[in-house]
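Reply to dn_fold:

You asked what the input looked like. This is it:
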Amino acid sequence: MVGLIFAAGLGTRLKPLTDTMPKALVPLAGKPLLQWQVEKLCDAGITDIIVNVHHFPDMIIDTIRANQGWGCAITVSDERDLLLDTGGGLKKIKNEKIKIKNEPILACNVDILSNIDIKDLIRCYEQTGISQLVVSERSTQRYLCFDEQNTLCGWTNIKTGEIKGSDGRHLAFSGMQILSPEVLSHLDEMPQEKFSLIDFYLKVMNKAPLQAYVPNNYRMMDVGKIDQIDEAEHFAESL
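and this is what came back:
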């Protein structure tokens, strides 16, 4: 299994920090966000990792090299010419065959910290062979919808009432997932270069199943806003 850390975002909500550094290198309790994610994947046994870059890409590349990948083999997918969003970034990696040899990918966002047991998530995938989307019952505006078989069937925005696909059990997406080779094989059906993973999931869900994975005693934090840095540091120290 290969790890993928989405680190190409502009980090506009973390300004002014991201005026001079990429979001992935914003320090948190003595470590850059990227290091937190790399070490969590490594602790779960995933040592082949891809990191996509766009904003201040050379700073990320230099930091990875200076720290020898924090003990992991890290490959960079360079999006400096065009920021591709999560789905487009994954499609680029697949088409360029960066580290992927018909194997599953565990993908996560660089700015979301959690107490998830990744080893348990991997066991669930290995037992079922079905792609796993890490979700929870927290309050938000946009939800993924799951049917009685715990399989993705749609998406909804409860504020606007918009529904794509079918309605079902509402669960909030965490930005982490394990995608099977079956699901990944459908990426080329997305004609555009830039698109989100959610758009891809809604297109492929009737062809290849995507299952809800709800962690036990789940705690997570999106380190997305400058005024949450102090809170995020306390959260990181508690993990």
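The chain has a mean pLDDT of 95.
Hope that clears it up.
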